[in-house]
Amino acid sequence: MTVVQTRPPAAPARRRSVPGRIRVITGVTVASLALLFAALAVGSASAGDGLRVIGRDAGPQVVATAGLYLGLSDMDAQVADALLMGREYGQQRRAALARYEQRRSEANQALMKAFELSGDDPAERRTVQSVLDGLGRYERLAGQALLLDTRAGHAAGPPPDEVVEIYRQATDLMRRVLLPQAYNLTLENGTIVRETYDDKNLTVPAVRAAVVVAGLLALGCLIWLQVFLTRRFRRVFGPALLAATVVTAVALVSGMNVLGQNTGDLRAAKSEGFDSILTVARARAISNSMQGDQSRFLLDKVRADTYEHTYLDKAQTVFYLPAGNLDAYHAAVRGGSGGYLGLMGAQLGGPDGRRALEAFTAFQAADTRFRALAMSGRNSEAVAARLGPVREAFDAYDKTLLAIAERHQKVFERAVGAGQSALDNLWRLLPFAIGGIGLLVLAGVWPRLKEYR
User: Where are the transmembrane segments (predicted)?
Assistant: First the structure.
């Protein structure tokens, strides 16, 4: 007996394979969409973390610790001014001591922020503790010098030698120990910002490229699904899947734009904002210490030459011109030489920069006249010049630096705000995009699957 095997009809097999293929293509499409939105989420989170660290957390705190150098240097300058005034400038002496107390409070606040930034880093914590200990020793020495100066009741000019000797110990502690440690704290804390920026400057563009790849893959899968359904069912493209494709394209373009904008905003916040703010803050601190050297030049005749050289070094650090001595530097500044380097060399563009240079030139002219009085032995007139025209010229110059710092602060805040706003908008739209695309894909596929039930 011959057994004849019959093969099942081909058509039903093909019909059973269609729902499976729809499910496979739909699954691949959904996976590609999930990959796209995961890349957008990772990129947004990474960019947001960079903006948070640089714009809200470490960045502003590092700028605050940069004020530590200014506060400490101004404390020492105010003590020098107070010792120089003697009994003839009672009201101004009280103002100098009040400013000394204000700067001491600001320095303590900056140290607290530095301690917060140090986290679990033992080296940074030791540095903060060392500055605190040194500041306590400085305050004791400064207080002792001021007390002896008050008892001496001398005329305007250098105080008695015992006062100068104690102040010399205080200013040596400040200039050789505390100020270098304060500057190192700013550098160490700034490492947090630099490392964050370097990391995000690599990560965000890489994730943006991943978003592009994932987005193109998702669009390709959506088109593949639509073409398959159109050919299999001999119908026009489904409106739901077309809408899903459009929404996916919009999400892709929006995500690319936001991540690209955040890369630019992060760069602007770091380079045009944070870095420039720190540079100007350091220039202000060094300039303040420089004008303190004018008082120390009068106060301590034994070290007058030393303070004249340190004045020149600080002036060239801020506005560099080649000069072998202070007279040559004054002449170069007075001659309107261009091509300034130093900390402020890159900040001289625009009206604020020109005003800063003009004010610095006026300050150097006042310093020239002040030193001429001191060198001719006219101490009382030199003190009057130091506390009058020279201080006024310095204050005008310092205001121009503050204006530059405020301009960079606005750039910093604008960049951080724009980047954060763009990210917030993207985070608000992502859930709706995910839900909407999911519903549209389901609406486009489900009716075709129902035909096989």
Answer: 209-229, 236-259, 426-446
Pick the closest to residue 53 from 282, 271, 270 (CA basis): 270
- What are residue 162's phi and psi, to 5 degrees? -65, -35
Domain ranges of the chain: 24-450
Amino acid letter at 314?
Answer: K
Q: What is the pLDDT of residues 345-381, one digit of tens each?
A: 888 888 889 999 999 999 999 999 999 999 998 888 9
pTM over 0.70: yes
Tokens of 70: 């200014």
Q: Where are the alpha helices (DSSP H) in 52-89?
A: 58-85
Contact 219, 252 (CB under 8 A): yes
Report the C-alpha gap between 206 and 108 in whole angstroms. 42
**Which single residue is written with the structure tokens 């104690």?**
166
Which pLDDT does position 335 carry in this prediction?
Answer: 87
Phi, psi dihedral angles at 320 (to 5 degrees): -85, 130
Upper half-sphere CA count for residue 426 (Cβ side, 13 Å): 29
The closest alpha carbon to 345, from 325, 362, 360, 331, belongs to: 360
Q: What's the CA gap between 422 and 7, in Å, rounded?
A: 62
